[in-house]
Structure prediction request, 345 residues.
Amino acid sequence: MRAVVFDGVGRVRVDEVPDPRPVHPDDAVVRVHLAGICGSDLHFLSGKAPLAPGEGIGHEAVGTVEAVGPAVETVEVGDRVVVSFAVACGRCWFCRRAETGLCDQAAVFGAGAFGGGLPGAQAERLLVPHADHNLLRVPADVDDERALFVGDAATTAWYAATLAEPAGRTVAVVGAGPVGVLLVQALVALGAERVVALDREPSRLAAAAAAGAEIVAVGERNPHMALARLTEDRGADVAIDAVGHPEAFETARSVVRRGGVVIVVGMYAGESVELQLGPSWAQAVTLRFTGPCPVHACWDAAMAEVRAGRIDPLPLVSDRLPLEDAQLGYERFAARAATKVLLVP
Prediction:
């Protein structure tokens, strides 16, 4: 079968790789209809999180179950399913507490050794471990393109939005990429009084505005002053780093009010920042890292929001490319010429 593989920093290629088959009794094989390029994939493409040449990449997929092991019970051949980007066992102490992102056997598709050595989802087929736990049937009235987001971005956004407890609050979202825009939608759906999106890219700010946010163009306006003017000099009740870059974290920290909450949903690897503990202590700021989203605990809720239209990822899709054009898709996404790239095997 064909699959996108890492080819060195900044490069991918499409290779012929062996067809997957169930290895363990609870495995399934999914024929991929669509795969997505995610902002997290850029961390691997850039070398920030290491991949070895020839390793598969990508963690977003929707498709049809093609084969199942004898222990699989909840899905069967022919089911249309979305794949959780993060694989969990469903049985350990953390999984039983619905903290599946912290599973004892946690792994991520297409992340090399960093993610547990799983294959990449940007491929014609994908082997899914613990299939009963890591596949979700897609309702007939949800199309593939929308369903794809429930395996990662839409559910990650919904989870972060629930942590913000946004009803009646002002929430600042730093970064208006796909997760940031979906966060805006989720926060609006959950009753936020005001959502403010901060970014440098005009097209991303336009998408956030269309989703219901007020916008701040970073670079043209000082973020701290902009949020102060909107909140009677207090700052945001909650600020969310939806990027995974030290500058985004520092911006979130700068716009939150005294007694506010900073939520970090963007992925980090080896970065560091200098955090002055005194001001954070004196201002009673709460810092919350989401970690890998516990997809399995909240993707039913996220799918319900997608079905109801309160979360609609479709406007984010800018590029639909054949798998062979993966390099072009990565280039366009990295250059912010595309908001979301879908690959069609």
